[in-house]
Amino acid sequence: MHFGLFLRLGAISLIAVIAASGASAQMMHGGGMGHTHGADGTGHDEMTMPGLRGLDATPEESAEMAVMFRNFRSIERSVENLPNGIRTVTRSDVPEVMDAIVSHAVGMIDRVGQKSDPQVFIQSPTLDIVFARAEGIKSAVEVTEEGLVVVQTSDDPELIAALHTHAAEVSDMAERGMQAVHEMMMRRAAAR
Hints:
By secondary structure, the protein is an alpha+beta fold. It has helices at 3-8, 59-70, 95-114, 127-132, 157-176, 178-191; strands spanning 36-37, 44-45, 75-82, 85-92, 137-144, 147-154. 41% of the residues lie in helices and 19% in strands. Helix 2 (59-70) packs across helix 3 and helix 5 (157-176) packs across helix 6. The longest helix is centred in the middle third of the chain and has 20 residues, at 95-114. The N and C termini lie far apart (40 Å).
C-alpha cells in the first residue's frame, strides 16, 4: 500500500467502516541504537526490537511497527476526543513510514473486528477491553491529503474511555518514541 499511489488516485478514500473494530490501529514508537534490557527475552533491544513481536503477530506486522518506531520523528499526529470516541489524523512525509502507518492501521482495525489480538509484547493493557468488546466499536478509516484519518466511536462508556486513553498513548509514542514505551512499561511493572 503506497501513500503516493493513494494520492495519485485522486480523492483517495480507503473507507472501511467496520462495525466491530477498534483502537489498536495505532501502536508506534521509535528509538536509538543498541540499548537492551530485560532478562526474559522480551526486553528491549533497539536494534532488533523483540518487544514488537507478539504471540499472534506476523513478521510483517512487527516490521511495520519497527518502521514507525525507528522513524517516529517523521510522524505527525493529532487527536480529537469526541463525546463518543476519537478522531485521529496521522501522517508522515516519508513514504515508507506513511505506508506502514496505513497498512498497520487497516490491519489492526481488521484484527480488532475479528477479535484477533496479536498480543504484542509491549502492547498497552488498554487494548484488552478493545479486543474483548470489539463489537461495540465502529471505525471509519480514510486516507486523505490530511493523512490517515481514523474515527472510532462507541455507545459503551468504558470503550470510549479506552479509545481516549489509547489515542493518548499512541500520540505519546509518536511524539517521544522509545522513551514513552519505556516509561509505560516501567509504570506497568511498578503497578504489579
